[in-house]
Amino acid sequence: MVVGVLALQGSFNEHIAALRRLGVKGVEVRKPEQLQYVSSLIIPGGESTTMAKLAEFHNLFPALRDFVKMRKPVWGTCAGLIFLADKVVGQKSGGQELIGGLDCTVHRNFFGSQLQSFEADLPVPNLASKEGGPETCRGVFIRAPAVLEAGPDVEVLAVYPVPPDSALIDQLVDSQEGEKKVIVAVKQGNLLATAFHPELTVDSRWHTFFLKMASEIEEGASNSIVTIEGS
Ligand code: GLN
């Protein structure tokens, strides 16, 4: 398995270091043709407008969209989540080019500006618990986006409870009953997305989760090729 990391801007070095700690080599991707040599891709956090401009400059969008359509495993963190969303709100003017594929509406700066960056413990039932420890992870939220609405095929992996007295409540979609929460980690088929930054912590469970998901998808793909060949 060769894991590519989109290396235009943002925390790509931290993702590569996190993969290295798991004994996996992450390969920097900056040009469309480099996507042919990786079997999965991580899109790091950073600044999504800048990243989109650089991706446009390098003519990466068609190849990135093909990669997603070919059902190759892709994990977007923070700005990467914004890139993968089918719909983004909370942008200033004009918006930015997106890859899309994730049936979600994402608020680009749901949690506010750099000054409103924060850390929080999130319940994460899908991650293996740390030895004897609770199934929570430390979420590092930096100018963080959030998922406001998710389609029927989207599995919610983590939510952040929005306190009733928080101004953030006004940004939520109206339909929520009871305790208000916002989605901060999702999975849809070959796509994984987190609003926070696991690569900035020493906890490697999200990277392990993605690698397992990627190897299952790759195994499924090669089995179907064998079936076609053998049929
Ligand atoms: N909200 C930021 C953006 O629009 C993303 C922040 C991040 O990746 N840490 O690009």
UniProtKB/TrEMBL annotation:
<keyword id="KW-0378">Hydrolase</keyword>
<keyword id="KW-0315">Glutamine amidotransferase</keyword>
<feature type="active site" description="Nucleophile">
    <location>
        <position position="78"/>
    </location>
</feature>
<dbReference type="GO" id="GO:0005829">
    <property type="term" value="C:cytosol"/>
</dbReference>
<comment type="similarity">
    <text>Belongs to the glutaminase PdxT/SNO family.</text>
</comment>
<dbReference type="InterPro" id="IPR021196">
    <property type="entry name" value="PdxT/SNO_CS"/>
</dbReference>
<protein>
    <recommendedName>
        <fullName>glutaminase</fullName>
        <ecNumber>3.5.1.2</ecNumber>
    </recommendedName>
</protein>
<dbReference type="GO" id="GO:0008614">
    <property type="term" value="P:pyridoxine metabolic process"/>
</dbReference>
<feature type="binding site">
    <location>
        <position position="108"/>
    </location>
    <ligand>
        <name>L-glutamine</name>
    </ligand>
</feature>
<feature type="binding site">
    <location>
        <begin position="142"/>
        <end position="143"/>
    </location>
    <ligand>
        <name>L-glutamine</name>
    </ligand>
</feature>
<dbReference type="GO" id="GO:0016829">
    <property type="term" value="F:lyase activity"/>
</dbReference>
<keyword id="KW-0456">Lyase</keyword>
<dbReference type="InterPro" id="IPR002161">
    <property type="entry name" value="PdxT/SNO"/>
</dbReference>
<dbReference type="GO" id="GO:1903600">
    <property type="term" value="C:glutaminase complex"/>
</dbReference>
<feature type="active site" description="Charge relay system">
    <location>
        <position position="199"/>
    </location>
</feature>
<dbReference type="GO" id="GO:0004359">
    <property type="term" value="F:glutaminase activity"/>
</dbReference>
<dbReference type="InterPro" id="IPR029062">
    <property type="entry name" value="Class_I_gatase-like"/>
</dbReference>
<feature type="active site" description="Charge relay system">
    <location>
        <position position="197"/>
    </location>
</feature>
<dbReference type="GO" id="GO:0042823">
    <property type="term" value="P:pyridoxal phosphate biosynthetic process"/>
</dbReference>
<feature type="binding site">
    <location>
        <begin position="46"/>
        <end position="48"/>
    </location>
    <ligand>
        <name>L-glutamine</name>
    </ligand>
</feature>
<dbReference type="Pfam" id="PF01174">
    <property type="entry name" value="SNO"/>
</dbReference>
